[in-house]
Amino acid sequence: MDLQPHLLIVDDDERIRGLLQKFLIRNGFLVSAARDAAHARRILEGLDFDMIVLDVMMPGEDGVSLTKAIRETSATPIMLLTAKGETEDRIAGLEAGADDYLSKPFEPKELLLRINAILRRVPDAGDVDTTPKFLILGPIRYDIERGEMWQGEDLVRLTATESQLMKIFSATPGEPISRAKLVEDLGRDRGQAQERAVDVQITRLRRKIETDPKQPRYLQTVRGAGYMLAPD
Question: Which residue spans within the chain are E strands per DSSP?
Answer without folding.
Answer: 6-10, 30-34, 51-55, 78-83, 100-104, 134-137, 140-143, 148-151, 154-156, 219-222, 226-229
